[in-house]
Amino acid sequence: MDRTEPADVQRWVRGWRVMVLDAGMLVYPAVTVPGVLQHSAGNAAIAGCVLVAVFVGCYVLAARAAAQRAPRRFWPLLGVLAVLFVAALPFAHAEAFFLATVVVSLAVPRLPRYSGVLVAVVALAALIVPWVLWDAAGWTQAVALVFTVLVVYAFAEAVRANAALVEARAEVARLASEAERTRIARDLHDLLGHSLTAITVKSTLARRLLDTDGARAGEEMTAVETLARQALTDVRAAVSGYRDVTLAGELARGRELLRACGVTADLPTAADVVDPARQELFGWVVREGLTNVARHARATRCTVTVTESTVEVVDDGVGGSPEEGSGLAGLRERVKAAGGQFRAGPVRPRGWHVRVTL
Fold it and tell me: For the whole model, what pTM was predicted?
């Protein structure tokens, strides 16, 4: 590899990072405590604060279970959180519905079919229950609940879309590799089947004629040599897709590759500005640069700039390792052999570039 590829492309939605993101929900238990102290006193206030503290502990465990995809632990903990919210109502009054915001935010991404009904019911309860029991308004709690759940739901959908995109990229790469193997296998079978059969038959005939008709045997062996050379030519033609590199072709293939990877491509539409003698080398630069973007960069945009004497590939991805992999090392050797200059490295504020000048 030419860049340091993470072991898990979903690293921002798993492990300790998701726990950091989930920690933002702890602001709601924090703002519930002043409500407990406002509406309760003495032992009641202590009991209310203990309930909130237990709620926080259960939330941390539930968030960890969700991050680890452990439903057997998550759902019982979510039930405990719901019970603790109800138990906190007499102590915190309307402010207890901040705890409901946490409960609903955990439940909605995992109950998408019932999310609308769940949010509507709890939001109405935040308005009605405080008004009926304590003659207080719960508008703040209801609005906080609705908008917080919307943000959490949007984040969860983004996570699902990202996972689907990663799977799609892997599937595109697998299908492309399988299609190429199928093409090679088909071409080799069609090309070599007849040639090798003819070579076998003529070799057997030449061996039989060797003692009785040397001239005829020589003719047959000449035919075998001709068939072998033709078969070799056909094999080279069949696998030429691996070596036939042109700038125009690589720009066309690269545009499709970036599109399949979800990367915005800013590529030239023509390669006429480049001298024909340089087109193959520039094609190798584009191929290697765009392959690295698709495999390792996790970029959103990639730009290829081509002039008469230079070609440059720039992306806005995560950058790369200072150590070159085999791909960039091989490209550097090609450029050196052509008498050109090769540069590759990170760009600011983020990204990576490969530039070749002849």
Answer: 0.49
